[in-house]
Amino acid sequence: MRSGERRITLADVAAEAGVSVACVSIVMRGAPGAGEATRERVLKVAEELGYRPDSRARLLRSGRSRLLGVVFDVRHPFHHDLLTGLYDAAGAAGYQLTLSAVTPRRGERTAVGDLLQDRCEAIVLFGGNMRSAELASIASRLPVVAMMRSARRRDVDVVHNDDALGSHQAVDHLVSLGHRRIAHVDGGTVHGSAERRAGYQEAMRRHGLAEFIRVIPGGAAEEDGARAAERLLVDPPTAVTVFNDLSATGLLDVLRRNGLSVPGDVSVVGYDDTSLSRLAHIDLTTIGQDIDGLAARAIERAVERIEGTPSGPRAVIIPPRLVVRTTTGAPSR
Amino acid sequence: MRSGERRITLADVAAEAGVSVACVSIVMRGAPGAGEATRERVLKVAEELGYRPDSRARLLRSGRSRLLGVVFDVRHPFHHDLLTGLYDAAGAAGYQLTLSAVTPRRGERTAVGDLLQDRCEAIVLFGGNMRSAELASIASRLPVVAMMRSARRRDVDVVHNDDALGSHQAVDHLVSLGHRRIAHVDGGTVHGSAERRAGYQEAMRRHGLAEFIRVIPGGAAEEDGARAAERLLVDPPTAVTVFNDLSATGLLDVLRRNGLSVPGDVSVVGYDDTSLSRLAHIDLTTIGQDIDGLAARAIERAVERIEGTPSGPRAVIIPPRLVVRTTTGAPSR
DNA sequence: ATGAAAGCGCTAACAC
DNA sequence: GTGTTAGCGCTTTCAT
After folding, report:
1. Across the interface, do A279 and B222 touch by the CB < 8 Å criterion?
2. How far is A326 from A282, CA to CA, in rounded Å?
3. For residues A12 and A26, what is the distance between their CA atoms, to the nearest angstrom?
4. Beta strands B67-73 and B96-102: pairing type?
5. Chain B residue with the nearest C-alpha to that of A153
6. Which N-terminal stretch is annotated as signal sequence (chains A, B) (predicted)?
7. pTM above the 0.85 mark?
8. Do residues A264 and A256 lie in contact, with contact meaning Cβ atoms separated by under 8 Å?
């Protein structure tokens, strides 16, 4: 038998406390203009009645929702880490988050649509494959911040990790260990792959290792890394930088199954510092993205656009950092 | 320059189409009571103007939100799989989902609070450590469906996997392979651990293997499995059933590092069929939960409570299924 | 088949 | 310091 037969409204609290609804509204919002005695009594009555403000009505009336929509993909572990940071940053800025998930059976289009209907004031998009034109049509309605992807539009803010720099860090680390024959397994057509690949190539050239540049086509999945490892087996380099941790895991597995020791024969560096890379038996050296930094800057951009003070650069690129674990060491050959 | 200066309302569409707002409302909802010609014209104008109904206003007026709140934990991979199923089930029942995440810095209390304020009509809770009494106080306000946990309350529906049966399936599988000395690494104080442990013990007794019952204290994390493996090393059984996949992964790692082959020397069975267990180099035999079944039943329970037709049992227990991979085989000893 | 009008629960002017 | 009033954008009788 549940008691939630009728929701308690401001009017109920007002009647019970013997004041007007406006007065209760003031008290509930903590706005100035109410006596201490009244304030206390109203709060007490609200508490007793189990009153909860109706955010819909409130937002409808005030014209603002102070709501930030977030589109994330349930399949991507990194998105979940980022959500954590985003909640903190949004809360600090006085905004609430409203989440809309992309699932194998629920596209970005749908996810964004729901958010628009919720009248959030800006949308933060995690990755995704939405085309620039589509992004632009959303951006024409409300501020859009795209994370972990690029967007060739002046009206879309982008906040992401510096992929090229991450690749530089990986290569620098391996070179400092004494490696020269360093290969790269890329991410295929996934967002960020081109930048990471170019970063690898540039870093190799910077170290005078242009002749050792070797890019193996890969992808974002474990199998992609496994396939790449098989191609590498013929003539193994002493080190490999891989597009992401998952692919690196697949590569590690195939390498070891074929009798190569890591890091004895081959050193491996992943990307993203996902929980997978931290597992004891994987313990992968990787490039970690600054999650809280990314989150804070994304919220900052969104709020600036909402509140009409668009300052600073349109694109925010955050430097990643190297996380050394046990899959890298000095070359034995 | 974005054009979303002002939101387009029903009135705008009505004015543009030369009809009343009520008429537009009818058309937009697809309600009966509008001529075909009018309907088409209104739809065309709405499209041109880029009109989007304001869900807040709509719900405020109609008194219903048709919104189901979901509390999930960003850290739990299984929760994400379940979200996918839940979106489908909710959509089919004519409800929308509103997500509220639990993060390392955002508790269940906060997550539920936001949902209450959003005036959703029921709450679906994934796991969590909320106490029964607290759950009850929420349930006194609106229907609550708890998933992947139990609740000793008549007013809280629970929908979860049959943990005891899962353990039976694991033991049956191992016994059919010829194992007798089968140990169990439990989940400590985590929800479901007691049931899985009891199921293991009962299955062992059922097979006349009571004398081989051996329970090692564990937990939900990888390290818990690793620690348990170290204790097992002294006198290894021929098979182990583990509380979950993550713990099983830690156990596998320690076993192999100590020269034991899997499944040659020891067979291992996990629980949950998470993406981790599917990784090529882990390829763990495990117990899979019926995600779509769980999701469908949870939505069903929630909707029944909302619409006032509470029929059927309060608790829904769904049978899991064995997923055989490569960590189990016939015993060599 | 369509329109006028009331009001969902709340906030924001303004008056008292 | 507190109450009155007028809506926010929409749905929903009830007339027409």
Report:
1. yes
2. 8
3. 15
4. parallel
5. B1
6. none
7. yes
8. no
